[in-house]
Structure formats: C-alpha cells, structure tokens
Amino acid sequence: MGLEISYNNDLDIGKELMHKLNKAFEAISDEENLSDNTINIRIVNDKEMVDLNKQFRRKNSSTNVLSFINHDISKSMTGDLGDIAINYDFIKRESKKQGKTFDDHIIHMLIHGIYHILGLDHENDEMAKAMEQKEVALLNKLNIRNPYN
Description:
Elements: E1 2-7, H1 15-32, E2 38-44, H2 46-57, E3 65-69, H3 75-78, E4 80-87, H4 88-98, H5 102-117, H6 125-141
Helix pairs in contact: 1-5, 5-6
C-alpha cells in the first residue's frame, strides 16, 4: 500500500521530489490511519487538467488539483481510496506567483487532495477552517510553512 505516482516523461519530476511526496504520504497516513491504503497520483500538464476539469466538473479551465474518491465496492478489499490529479504547469506558475517553492506547493496540493478524498472540503467557512488547520499542522511536521499566510 502507499502512494502510486505516474506522470509523463516530459515533466521534470526528480527523485528528491518523489521522495518528498512519499514522505508526505507517510506523514498523512500516520496522522489519519491510512497505512493499509493506496492513493493514486497522476501529475499532469495544463492540457490534461483542462480535459479532466471539462469531463468531470464541466469547467473549461485549468486548476491546480482535482480529487476523485473511489466509490467502487472493491475499496474495502483493495484499500484504494481514490485518485488525485496534480497540475505540474499550474503549480509551477502558482508557486512562483505566491512566492513558494515548487516542491512545497506540490506537497501541499497532495495533502489538500488527500483531505478531499477523506471527505473534507472548503464549501463553507467552518469546513474550510477545519481542513486548513489539518493541512497546516501536517505541513508544519514536514517543515513547510503555512501556505495560507
């Protein structure tokens, strides 16, 4: 069980970033008791994300992260909680604009996406605050500063 990561070869995903993503998954697994579970990550480019956003959210635009909860009946047997698409191009632009490192921002989007899969959301202020608090606490454990300040 663990984090399954896939991406196109034209994206610059080095061993260090892969290690950091796996370490972040270990941290959230410890925090949320996910050690027997798997989450699939696909790191995509803008075009792929626009296609996904169009297909699943009926929005003809790009975004930084999309989460897909596994509702399949095999979930209890496989431990596969769902899929996350993270937009490499969007994260690169957004991290530069917000003064964050690329690695820190992509790790935040991974954690954000996992919390969506676990049922947290930011549809109202109360839920958003709870989700942000969990993210910030976990990022702090990974020595990543609060992305909301």
